[in-house]
Amino acid sequence: MADTAITPTRAQNYPEWYQQVIVAADMAENSPVRGCMVIKPWGYAVWENMQAVLDRMFKDTGHVNAYFPLLIPLSFLEKEAAHVEGFAKECAVVTHHRLKGDGNGKLIPDGELEEPLIIRPTSETIIGHQFAKWTKSYRDLPILINQWCNVMRWEMRTRMFLRTAEFLWQEGHTVHATAKEAQEETLQMLDVYQKFAEEYMAMPVIKGMKTPDERFPGAVDTYTIEALMQDRKALQAGTSHFLGQNFAKASEIKYLSAEGKEEFAWTTSWGVSTRLIGGLIMTHSDDNGFVAPPRIAPLHVVIIPIYRNDEEKAQVLEYVQSLAKDLKNQSYVGSGIRVKIDDRDMRGGEKAWQYIKQGVPVRVEVGPRDMAKGEVFVGRRDKGPKEKASQGRDAFVQGIGSLLQEIQDGLLERAKKFRDDNIKKITSLADFEKHFTGDESSAPGFALVPWCEAGVGHELLGKLKVTPRCAPLNQEAVSGNCIFSGKPATKWVLFAKSY
Amino acid sequence: MADTAITPTRAQNYPEWYQQVIVAADMAENSPVRGCMVIKPWGYAVWENMQAVLDRMFKDTGHVNAYFPLLIPLSFLEKEAAHVEGFAKECAVVTHHRLKGDGNGKLIPDGELEEPLIIRPTSETIIGHQFAKWTKSYRDLPILINQWCNVMRWEMRTRMFLRTAEFLWQEGHTVHATAKEAQEETLQMLDVYQKFAEEYMAMPVIKGMKTPDERFPGAVDTYTIEALMQDRKALQAGTSHFLGQNFAKASEIKYLSAEGKEEFAWTTSWGVSTRLIGGLIMTHSDDNGFVAPPRIAPLHVVIIPIYRNDEEKAQVLEYVQSLAKDLKNQSYVGSGIRVKIDDRDMRGGEKAWQYIKQGVPVRVEVGPRDMAKGEVFVGRRDKGPKEKASQGRDAFVQGIGSLLQEIQDGLLERAKKFRDDNIKKITSLADFEKHFTGDESSAPGFALVPWCEAGVGHELLGKLKVTPRCAPLNQEAVSGNCIFSGKPATKWVLFAKSY
């Protein structure tokens, strides 16, 4: 066995390491359909845990779920000019509604549609059409809807979880009577995303507003949470859009105000996707595989019974079944501990390495000697694979909730330190160029620079493959000039190489 | 106000009544995309409750969730002859991957694909392709997977929930080493569906095997649960397929046995969809709207405060908030009571009718006089809208779990009696014809007839628009001849007009 379970290591080849972690943890694989992935059970279990938490947070902020059509008439997309511009180049188009034989034993499309339909890349236009029917009076507002679904964007370069042609996501869509309410909603959902990323995924994020060139097509303002991966590239982890009246005008979402006047409504949309799983992998995983933060881990504890013969096996299994039962009755973040006994006939070490690669927070090995002493042999995924220690069985059971939270907190703290260590203030274009020039395979983290709107689209950015990530919401007063335009700076803006 | 909240009534025009119940309960609406519906929050909340129960039942029987691509290469569909035959005429076909301007301000499809892709009508072929990679040795078996997703079948005549071009469903797909194990899985999942339909939806079903002409395209055996709607038409509510080695051969799902021999595996698939919501509506609803069985109702109890002025309002609201809190702490089927206080400024009667139409099991009205007496005024959705009664507040709170179960049991009992009253044994073709001849708008229920395989496709069936529903698994010994072929009968088979 190599020194590490994953080859290559992060230092050797980060992009390839990422793919190999996904393989080793058995989370996903490529499919025969270009750019579409298969989310395997372990990866999907992470998504289910993420969904459950997010869904609860959306409902606690007053939203309800609904479902709208997968297919969107082409003419709907045309209604909002910036929107169609943003999505036309990556739409899967349905043109026929049946198949027929070609006479040579092959099938060909048949039944051409009068108007082609596109598979939703996002649902503002089709949901807007329905909202226009639902919105008659100010009494009908706000409308607070979320949809869990699949969407499709025909990306040319794909990478599992991070960028795939089809992905799973949630898209919130809301309608309000005033700009103020819509803006508050936009920021409220950004807070929800930050809370989720940090408290559940242990992935620290910076909340900010996108610069105009990075806005969602059709939005007035786009807000984002930006995370930093271990290769010091940024990841846009979630976005929340204040759409102003743009989509309300495109879809005719109007209401009668309390004063009896017809007004266009104000809308928002916000979404996170299976891309978050890519961010999760790249935030915590190490050269031995995936590291799952306890709060969203498919399993909290795996128990590996160790024995040499059938007699020992029977005794050990009885012991670990009672251990598993007691663990399940303990609680962590409001629900039970997720425990599994792996009693397959395989070497214990082989099993242990499987769970290390899959990122299970706590491994417990129990053999006859541990039993005799009333002990368990405990390994933590956030420590080295050999750093295991004996512990009294009952103390371990009683302390499991605290142990999981300790692991959770440790992951966030480590990631936060890494992120904070990799933000640098830069106040000249020369320093900016120097900062971002170097080996293609690594990146130097975030640069925080004085910026103004006239600096958008500077040619150096394309050359360096660097993009503005956001103007952090929480920022110091800025002075001096925008490093790109030379004009007085209006904001600090974060730049980075990114996914 | 008319005598009933829904116009027309069931007796006047059943199909239109069904549509109007959906409108009145605000569960769904048609979309601008042909045959695709919008599932509105109240309808989607029912689906979420159904999903939660089914998902738990699937996991308790050892299944895990995963996700496979929406799009399927045309060539995959061609691999199984019966399968392609069954689905080719209703496939949405993706032929292009972007849009471009036509020079006249309109968008047209661009970027033609080398091989067209179809939107999954079901996923046997794409999942089979992945299973072939996952299945190397008998040690990898069984594989027990479920997928929650959307699918598309381009139906020509659609009806909300019952038959839509796009629908939501779950599709289970499993791989086994032996025919026996696959058959056991097929029947196990049929039992799960029956349990769900009867214990949660309060919808009695008959488990049976489909006749050969009604099998899933590519299946060896298709099992079904069949329900009877209030217009005495049957509804296929869920199916479970023993696929033999048909799809294993088409997708090359092979494994090395314990004896080191390469074998084709045996597969199953099984699914239920949002169609169940249509069945739910048609099983319990009445001329005042939807009736939600408590176990899957979005809300269990709605509280309507009654007051004449602000002073009364404050007092009553305080009283109902404490009532709601106490109700929430009671439990029903392992979780809390779902309670809402409706304090909108509207007439109490108007509110009450909204919840009657939406099918909330229990309505509670509370005004100053009820408060003074420590009472609540309770209406049950399974009784007439005027049959309301006063009850002591604490007794009502203590008894809410039992009351909900009483309502649940009553719905099942009523539906079961209706179903049982509408099954008739028929042993001659003349009686069969007489039984099913009559007004187009109504149906006479199930006919149970002696049948043999040679009777498949009798011309009378098409003329009467009657189909074989299933051979009930639980059946008496059959004697005499098949009424269609005149040859010795092998089974009793249920026939009906159906959805």
TrEMBL record, chains A, B:
GO terms for biological process: prolyl-tRNA aminoacylation. GO terms for cellular component: aminoacyl-tRNA synthetase multienzyme complex; cytoplasm. It holds the Pfam family ProRS-C_1. Residues 43-293 form the Aminoacyl-transfer RNA synthetases class-II family profile domain. It catalyses: tRNA(Pro) + L-proline + ATP = L-prolyl-tRNA(Pro) + AMP + diphosphate. It comes from the Bacteria. Catalyzes the attachment of proline to tRNA(Pro) in a two-step reaction: proline is first activated by ATP to form Pro-AMP and then transferred to the acceptor end of tRNA(Pro). PANTHER family: BIFUNCTIONAL GLUTAMATE_PROLINE--TRNA LIGASE, PROLYL-TRNA SYNTHETASE. This is Proline--tRNA ligase. It comes from Bdellovibrio bacteriovorus. The lineage of its organism: Bacteria, Pseudomonadati, Bdellovibrionota, Bdellovibrionia, Bdellovibrionales.
